[in-house]
Queue: 3 jobs
Job 1
Amino acid sequence: MLEVFLGGYMFHPAALDYSGDTCQNNCAYCFANINKEFRTGNLQGAINAFYKSEPKTYRDMLLSMGYPILVSNRSDPFTVKNQRDSIALFTHLAERKGGVFIQTKTGPGMDECLDLMGDRRDVVVYITVTTIKDDIAKIVEPNAPPPSARLATAKRLHKAGYLVLIAVNPCSEAWMPRDDLETLCKALKKEGMNHVCIEMLDIKRKRLSLLGEKRVKRMGAAIGMLGDRNRLYVRECTEYLVYQGFDVAKKGMPFKTELFVHMKDRLGTTMPVMQDFVNHCFDKYGTSGAVLSYPEWESIMARDGIMLKTIKQNNIRDYLLRSGFASWKDNQEVHSHKEFLRIVWNDPRHRISVQNHSLFRVIGKDKKPTLDEDGNVQFYFSGQPYFGKKKEVIEV
């Protein structure tokens, strides 16, 4: 199914997502089938969307403007079940303008799809490596190619000129202990590969019962490391990767990174990401400290493309629905990304709010934000993250 990539807003440069049938890799930690065990792709619907003569929906507009497509966020495109549809899809992707972001553990059909793209290099390949040990992967990700094979494919594609991201996602100390992470990093450096994505294993304990006893058992020691322990471990791993000179992507990234810059260079017209603003702040202010106002945020995040357009339908508000129901409910009329950016800046009730990023602290007094003449909050940026459990306003 080809959809607007609602869950990727402010973090992923792709605007659209195509997900096929339910993945056969049977990963114990899979988020995509916790609430919906079986998914069915709609290949014909996606292909039809490519050839609409006049864009009628927000999705159509993104397609016509050449925004990149993620293949895919909810199922691996390169499994036995999905390979034929993926090859058919790439036959048409090769003919349209706009980059392709491939998210996979590798597998059947991958080489055929890349061959269809020919000499185009507006393709980014994200390969998940949850562990470097094949025996652990056989338990946790039993039907996926072993990590040794994935890394071999990653090295081959890197040498062929593709931008390849190695994704330790999800990262758990049970599967990727520090020694193994260091071994992986040395292997990547040896090959000249410098781009790593890392995210914590984020399954709330109350949702574990939805996974089923067998899946929980396959996750093994990772279950006992959920929550604060895993959060701290991933934070330490992120710092290690940064200090080793890797370009790193992580939600809430508290460091400057060029990874998204390199992705955008390949993918062409892309959605803005929070890291754009983070990089801007580090470039302009370093660690000297600065007060940030809304116009500066808008000038960085709404420079071109879809961000400057008024949308006839109210589709943009759907991004809020994915990140915070209360905020969605209170903002019934949002018809441009600029309007939405103001909500992202001012409303702390959704996950993608600037106020929830560790690098930005709201300026205020007596626990209340101080608003500017246009009713917007202001932030203080010092280049130093704040990881306190309760992030209250500060006086400057």
Job 2
Amino acid sequence: MKASRVFIVVIIALMAVILLFELNAPTRFKWDDKSQSYNSKQPFGCYVMDSVLRASLSQGYEVCGSDIDQYFGRTINSRKYTFLFTNNYADVAYFKDVNLLDLIKDGNNVVLATDENYYSYEVSDLSEELDFHLSYIDDIYMSTSNIETLSDRTLMDTIHWCDDGMFGPGSYLVSPAFCNYELKLSSSFRPLATLNRAKRLVGSQAEGYVGTIAGIRNYGKGKFIVVSMPMIFSNYGILDDNIRPLVLRLLSECGNLPIVRYDQSYVGKTTHEQDEEGEGSPLRYLLANQPLRWAFYLALATLVAFVFFSARRRQRVIPVITPPVNHMMDFVKRIGGIYYKRHDNVDLLTKKYATFSNDLRTKAMVDIDIDNNELIDDELQLLSNRTGIPRDELQRQVRDVKDAMMATSISDKRLQQLIDVMNDIMHRINI
């Protein structure tokens, strides 16, 4: 193998090893990023969740930011929505001149996933008006916000979904890191999910905890759902097999209204669509990841070096090789000339018959050289079925050929007639 080819093979092998190593390397996530931003691919971002819900919810799913006013305006024209707030309701209440309580009364739905109470004038006294509040779960029940507990499968809470007529009861294991607050709800609420926290020893007694973490109530023409586990609405939540059913069940409680998730970091649909189009480009994916980007640059540098050094080599002249002359026709003409000069028609007919009988055996599975009279009759009948020629006529034709081969000489005309008979039989078989 030439040195240039060895060089190319070594470079390709090194690139393959580097790519495999980087693809199999563990992904480094930013667990402290709890922004729940639409463009964040971290565990507690919402890029994956928004993509999955947008593709799977038939009623429609959108993300909005400062343009949330347009959805408030549409509700005036009898267009209703389900608004999803994840720890960011205060941003709307402070800066938007709209009362969400009036929107709910008018027939819109609100899903509030939060871990804080709203008792101020600026946020419309939401907690007081709807009669709910959150309380911190004491540390005695292993409440923790330490994200490291996500990897400890022995330390899990059990979430029980209450039978609501739409969905049957169910139990799901969730890390304690997702829930540090319980809900205190009035009788106007119907509990949707409860938390069963594992027991631990306190002194000489084993204690546990049961509390409500999601509830729903009717308010005017709309519905209000409050959830004390805001971080389940994230990439991690939608990809976790235990949390995903909770997310979908909570959103399904609001019926078939289009869902609008508020995200204060959302900068507009046009920019987001451009981001999604860019993410679909393989080249953009390569350049967005540092290991793949350097592998791509190395491949380009190698290709440029190969082209540069290859251009300096002198091109070799490839000789034109004349294909060998086919002398088969000359051979056939010589053999034919010998038979013509000798005029040995019997030998020529014998060779033609040998080819004819062999073709019958291979193509029609018929053997006309059998000495047994009963078997030869069966073979001729089979040949008659294949060719459409009556058996008696076939028997006569075969007998004429065999008799001519036993003669001392035959005329040119008779030879031509017998050869035409054999050719006609083979032609009928090949049709």
Job 3
Amino acid sequence: MLIKARINENDQDMFRLCSWSATAFSANPVLRLQTDDLRRIKEVFERVSKIEIFVSDNLVASYQKYDTYGAISYSGKVFVEHENIFADCMEVQLIRSSIEDEVARINDQINPVVDIDAMTTEEYRTYLLKQIGAACRQAIYDGTQVQLMNGTVEHYTYNDDDQKNLTNAMAILIIAPELPYIPYHPSGGFCRMIPAFDLLTIYSTLQLKLTYLTTRCNFMNMWIRGIETKEELLQINWDTELPEDYQAQVNEIYMQALEIVNKIKEKFTPVSQESEGSAEEGEPNESESTEET
């Protein structure tokens, strides 16, 4: 005969019990589970909505008045009489949390405290990959300074909306390359008519930075996935330098992207720039416009 407890109607969270008495449970709501996996017990019983007890696959009891655990203790090896075996036993004290506890729990879910020390190597690897991705995305969104043909330097961000707006502006320029000006705006500035060649410079500068950062992020992910120990992973963050062979590949891809951009700019000389000066004279220095990358 098997006696089991199913938590939150999830068959993946089904535990065999060391013993069961409905009367004893009503007086003292403690489940005696056949396991020694403390981490899993904490995860499953952190938030409880329903507890079901099965005897030989027959539902004999159901409880919904407990929503979390109060204490968890290990009882060691105990004799399980209904199975005639010895098994590890974890005792879980169930409680109904107070309003204050519930508010604190919701706050923890919204603003979780990351316990790095408690993470396994794989858990920390997953956490680190997310942090690297978030840092890369933020670096792209932050944008960069761009030097225009008249010598002024303006800051342009490159978040999702910026990428969409600038791509749309470039689409207009591609369809009608004879246009001398295109409406656009720097970060925090007013929309104005920007010379077409300046718009191309803004777009190419931001796209080059995006290419560099995205490529660097991809190689960082490859590097992190190949590391075996948590100690090594703890030494890595977004600002950590890549191994030389990975960085060389990042640089190679970036230089190829830069070559493509330069060829496009050589072929793209709007009419407005012919009267204002040659593209050669007004063209910004790529090393300056992509200084951040």
